[in-house]
Amino acid sequence: MEQLQGFDVGTLSLEHRMAYLQGVCSSMPIQNSDQQRVLVEVVRLMGDVVDAVTDLKQRMDQLEQYVDDMDDDLANLEEAVFDGLNDEDLDEKAPDGHSMLVSFADVPCPHCGLHFFVDEDFWAAQDVVDVDCPNCHESVEVSKSGLNPSH
Ligand SMILES: [Zn+2]
User: Fold this and answer.
1) pLDDT, tens only, 46-105
2) How far is the CA of 109 from the centre of ligand 1 (A)?
3) pTM, entire model
4) Three-class SS string for the chain?
């Protein structure tokens, strides 16, 4: 950034640079020329743009702060809920007899090719079940034996 009146305006904030430019512009001798009218309008427009950008930046800073706070809250919540529990605790059977760790099996749809996940509890009682593909909604036959369970 070039030197103007002995200081480097490039180191200043957008608002200060804009105020400086507006000051320079308003101290120009009035010539009533088309060029000056255009220049004045451009400076005015830039002032509005700088205001809008400054406002957006403030909102973004607030949003970032909000997300940071939520992240902290979530970490605290996780600690409060899961502190002291390990995977084996989580794998203990819930009162209804189901594992609290849910296993899912990767199922490829023969109609559209989509791979989707099916809760293994779904066919705990039977070997073969029909599941609707979430993509093409065709019925897909899923058998317990032909699957590679994954967590
Ligand atoms: Zn499908």
Assistant:
1) 999 999 999 999 999 999 999 999 999 999 998 888 876 666 665 555 556 555 566 777
2) 5
3) 0.45
4) CCEECCEEHHHCCHHHHHHHHHHHHHCCCCCCCHHHHHHHHHHHHHHHHHHHHHHHHHHHHHHHHHHHHHHHHHHHHHHHHHCCCCHHHHHCECCCCCECCCCEEEEECCCCCCEEEEEHHHHCCCCEEEEECCCCCCEEEEECCCCCEEC
Ligand 1 centroid to Cα of residue 102, in Å, is 23
Q: Encoding tokens for residue 33? A: 């020329």
Which residue reads 């970490």 in tokens? 75
Q: Compute the distance from residue 116 Cα to the ligand 1 centre, in Å.
A: 9
Q: Report which residue type is found at 78.
A: E
The tokens describing 36, both together, are 């000056």
Ligand 1 center from residue 13 Cα (angstroms): 55
